[in-house]
Design goal:
With about 550 residues, the protein is of the alpha/beta class. The protein contains 20 helices and 20 strands. The strands form 4 sheets. A 6-stranded parallel β-sheet has the order 3-2-4-5-7-6, sandwiched between helices. The protein has a 6-stranded parallel β-sheet with strand order 11-10-9-12-13-14, with helices on both faces. It is globular and about 75 Å long.
Length: about 550
């Protein structure tokens, strides 16, 4: 009698392939279009933990944060039609921030395709402009091939999202197939010729400046350490770019600040003085270049060195004198071995930049009872160095970026695309990955209500996230821009809010409302004694619109 060959469903084969690639967590809102995959997940709860979210946008945000923090694709599972549409915001985030992510979307049965079936959606039409790869898996036997391709695509070069459609009926097809081997993306370093050219450029510099801003998924703490060794060998000044503060020790004597939003005017002058700019990983967008006005286009007057993990980011606007495309960690390692032939004489230049940064981050007075600057400096000083901070979009973020100091990589989880609603799900994702760490989720009142329902997810999985809602009862950044351009004609910015502390308590977590820095310190100290989620609402003065601007002053002109 012939031995019966064992088959498995497409859904189970898919999960086996994900396990072979090292997947341990997936984020989802369940849907009837991928029941075959859900059934397969039922059998492996200890191997691949499925986190249930309350909205598909949060699924994608959590998967993106996972990819950002680990360098491995975050996994999301959503249903067709409205589920996929809700997830777009997180896919766009992964695209703009260069984060590896794989989003699985349940699809209509193959026989019903292009018939206008219930919730049918053209995935390529929706995601084509923002994903590295979009395809439906029509043949279950090809699942090992396609999953291997998806992992390699998501992680290679400039990382990004991959979208895979899962036809309902395909998930139940019986097939014989074996999961592919673990994907190990190619990691190529810079050429010796390029490194020698870089050494020559630095040797001829009078006032060089390094700007660091790699895609977080392409970076590591080891890269931080390598870069620090390079910076010390050459005694170079170094700044980080918008929302990449954790890519160099902010307390280091060579650190000169953040080139982003709410810049120190002295840092702007400092960058203008530099004759050589070494851009490591950053894209040189309108944020870093003051609306593309800071440097001459296409050839800046400064000597420009641009290093990136992907060709897409090189020469898009500004043409570099030296361009290097390689793995960021390998590049950092190569730099650590470089040493100057003659000791550089940039001491005064470096000291000037660091002194400017120190002056800019001094809390120069209590502009409001809540004193957000004082709160951020107290948190930064009090909490462990590995505390993870997430935030979304809004003027409240300027206090965090200016006064919260980062010493280790992986401690700032924020998107360069500045998307509202990101902070809460991103913090929960961080809490799932690192249950032993303190996680802070900062959000403005407008930002929080876009995904605040995920508090329920934080409770369900008991993530150690402390939610801090900064409430000025308005979309403050929009009002600031309105007052700058159309004084005393602000519209559509004032908000009617719930009592956020009471709302959090209704979900079942401890929460308090505070109005002063002393009350905040006392409340946070008490709530932080216990692991698990908690919330503090800070009531702030709406007139204090940034750390250095009052709305009332803007109206005066």
């Amino acid at each position: 009698m012939k031995k019966k060959i064992k088959t498995q469903t497409g859904g189970r084969l898919l999960i086996d392939c994900l396990l072979r690639q090292g997947a341990t967590i997936g984020y989802s809102v369940p849907g009837e279009s991928y029941l075959g995959v859900l059934d397969a997940l039922y059998d492996v709860p200890d191997q691949l933990k499925l986190i249930i979210c309350r909205q598909e946008g949060s699924v994608a945000f959590m998967a993106e944060a996972h990819g950002r923090l680990t360098g491995k694709p975050g996994l999301g599972f959503v249903t067709r039609g409205p589920g996929a549409a809700n997830a777009v915001i997180g896919v766009q985030t992964a695209h703009l921030d260069g984060t590896p992510m794989i989003l699985f979307v349940g699809q209509v049965p193959r026989k019903n395709r292009e018939r206008g079936a219930f919730q049918e959606l053209d995935l390529k039409g929706l995601f084509g402009s923002m994903a590295k790869l979009v395809m439906d898996i029509d043949d279950a036997a090809r699942i090992p091939e396609i999953i291997s391709r998806a992992y390699r695509t998501a992680c290679s070069g400039r990382p990004g999202p991959v979208i895979l459609g899962l036809p309902d009926d395909m998930q139940l097809d019986e097939v014989i197939a074996t999961p592919g081997d673990l994907i190990k993306p190619t990691r190529s370093g810079p050429s010796e010729k390029a490194l020698n050219e870089l050494k020559k450029i630095i040797a001829n510099a009078q006032k060089p400046l390094v700007l660091i801003g790699a895609k977080p998924s392409t970076w590591s703490q080891q890269a931080n350490d390598y870069i620090q060794k390079f910076i010390e060998n050459y005694n170079l000044p170094v700044a980080t770019v918008f929302r990449r503060q954790d890519q160099f020790d902010n307390g280091h004597q060579n650190y000169v600040g953040v080139k982003g939003v709410g810049n120190d005017p002295k840092l702007e002058e400092y960058v203008d003085e530099a004759d050589v700019l070494i851009i490591i990983g950053a894209e040189m967008t309108d944020i870093e270049t003051n609306g593309y006005q800071k440097y001459d286009i296409p050839n800046p007057r400064q000597k420009l060195v641009h290093i990136s993990s992907g060709h897409e980011d090189i020469g898009r606007v500004f043409q570099a004198d030296l361009s290097i495309v390689c793995d960021m960690n390998e590049f950092a390692k190569s730099l650590s071995d470089l040493k100057p032939s003659i000791q550089p004489s940039w001491d005064d230049w470096v000291k000037k930049g660091h002194k400017n940064y120190q002056d800019f981050t001094i809390n120069k007075g209590n502009m409001q009872d809540a004193d957000l600057a004082g709160i951020m400096k107290w948190l930064s000083k009090t909490l462990p160095d590995d505390t993870i901070v997430s935030f979304g979009a809004g003027n409240y973020t300027q206090w965090i970026q200016r006064y919260f100091s980062h010493n280790l990589f992986g401690t700032q989880v924020a998107t360069q695309s500045a998307i509202m609603g990101y902070s809460v799900p991103a913090a929960i994702s961080a809490g799932m990955l690192y249950p032993e760490k303190t996680i802070l989720s900062f959000a403005g009142d407008g930002c929080f209500l876009m995904n605040g329902q995920e508090i329920a997810t934080a409770i369900r999985y008991n993530t150690n996230v402390k939610f801090i809602v900064i409430n000025n009862s308005r979309y403050g950044s929009i009002q600031m821009h309105q007052e700058k351009r159309f004084p005393e004609r602000s519209i559509a910015v004032e908000l009617t809010n719930p009592d956020f502390a009471a709302l959090a308590r209704a979900y079942g977590i401890p929460a308090m409302q505070v109005k002063t820095i002393n009350d905040f310190i006392e409340t946070f100290t008490e709530l932080n004694r216990t692991a698990g989620p908690a919330l503090i609402e800070i009531i702030t003065d709406p007139d204090v619109i940034t750390p250095s601007i009052m709305l009332s002053d803007l109206r005066k002109g």
